[in-house]
Amino acid sequence: MFRKIVSNLPFSPTLVGQLGFYATRLRKEETTRRVGLIFTALALVVQSFAVFTPPESANAANGSNIIYGGFKDKNDLLGIYDRNLDSARHTDIQQIYTLFGVTRQDLANASMGSFNSRDFNLSIDSVGRSTYSWQRTAHAVPGTSSVVYSGKLYNFDSTSWTKSHGSTYQALIGKRASDGQWFAIMQGCGNPAFITLPPPPPQPVASCLGLSLTPISRTRFTFTAKASVANGATISGYTYTIKDTKNSVIHAQNTTTNQSTNAIDYTFAKDGTYTVDVVVATSTGKQTGPACAKSISVSPEPRCKINPDFTESSPECKPCESDNTIWYKDDNCTSNFTLTKTLKNSSQLITDANNTTVHAGDRLEYTLTVKNVGKTTGTYTIQDNLADVLEYADLIDAGGGVIAARSAATPVEKVGVISWPAIEIKPGASIQKIVSVQVKSVIPAIAQSTSNPESYNCRMVNDFAGNHTVALVQCPTPKAVEQVVTQLPRTGTTENMLFAGLLISVVTYFYARSRQVKKEVRLIRRDINAGTI
């Protein structure tokens, strides 16, 4: 339009009025574009905060974390290590890292970086406090009561994309000074990752030096055993075994001690020739030898038929509760328990609801059964972890049990565990506990945990001593989208700033063009007033 008005001005001076109208429109357009430029610049400032300050997951911390909630950077990790304390009051962090060969100096020499779960030909293992389907190898932590579990990290990948491409983790990465092997401490959870376990410490040695028999009376003797240990080996006890001429064991006695010399007194109750040998229990295993076996002859009184170590009148001469052919303290006279678990959907009238889909408001019953298949009465304490079930359901009947709630005195990994007092179970008898839960009326759409893919994954998984039950939850639409789209495109700082630069260039161009056209109108009007047009 502007070009048409200017080209016709020499032939129709009356177009000057239209040129003035066009100039007024240009001023308004310039104002509009100036405002657009200002708001675009402000939007870029806000976007820069989002680019340079990465988001953090609201569901990142998990009871399996070695350091609950992870750490911010290397200095934060070193501070937690030096205190040996995290926000969940764990006091075994130093011992866990030491178990996997990582020292404080190794941490100080390491640097922040990233690695993929499929690196090193899928040989990376990760460690956590809880056991999952992919994390089953148990490791007792020396000096503590803790047990941690390890497994191949690539088994942690739960989607088809991550199974093919792996998952990338931010971590403090370095090499162990003990053997030069790669290790990483995962930033989001503080869990160690490694390729190989550290080399074992120098091998301790132990041996049984000898056994002497000293008579006290005709039938009573003192057995004195001696042992030696080296290279850190320790003694935990001695086992004395007495056999008759038929090589049958008539008496076996264990003593618990860490001393290199041990003695016991024993009174024989039957005539005959016997052999006495001692086995020393050490940290390297059971130790014995020719010097630790002796022969002896005695003439004691008649003995108990089921255990000749005692007389027939002795209160210890008692048979096993359900087998009168063996002694009540015999190794075969023990209790043994089998555990089973079933899942019932009372709302849908499904007796075996394992691997079935549950709906909002459904009532589910978990039946826990413990049976004593041994030969004597035993005591058993029933415990079951309902943490995963209670993500989508509410407990309505604990069946007499007590569930551990979150508190300062309750370890994070114990939250959601229901337990009952210890109970005696006779041979062949069984007990049952029934726990009832009701699926929430509104299924929560909480995002799946970044540190534990089994949390809020539309499945209520429960494991009772190897009895695995799964209830599939009909989750809302956002959860369905989450399982298809697992993460946003990886844009990064460079891509964001390039897009911002392109956007501000376009806005600046249109603003400059408006100013240029306004200037040209002003020049034309001046020429008209001067009579040059």
Task: Describe the protein in words.
The chain folds into four domains: 77 residues; 121 residues, no CATH class; 113 residues, Immunoglobulin-like, CATH 2.60.40.10; 141 residues, Immunoglobulin-like (Sandwich). 23% of the residues lie in helices and 32% in strands. The chain contains nine helices and 29 strands. A hairpin with a 4-residue loop joins β8 and β9. It is elongated and about 145 Å long.
Short structural description:
The longest helix is centred in the C-terminal third of the chain and has 39 residues, at 492-530. The model has no long low-confidence stretch (mean pLDDT 85).
Search tags:
seven-stranded antiparallel sheet; 533 residues; 23% helix; alpha+beta; 4 domains; Immunoglobulin-like
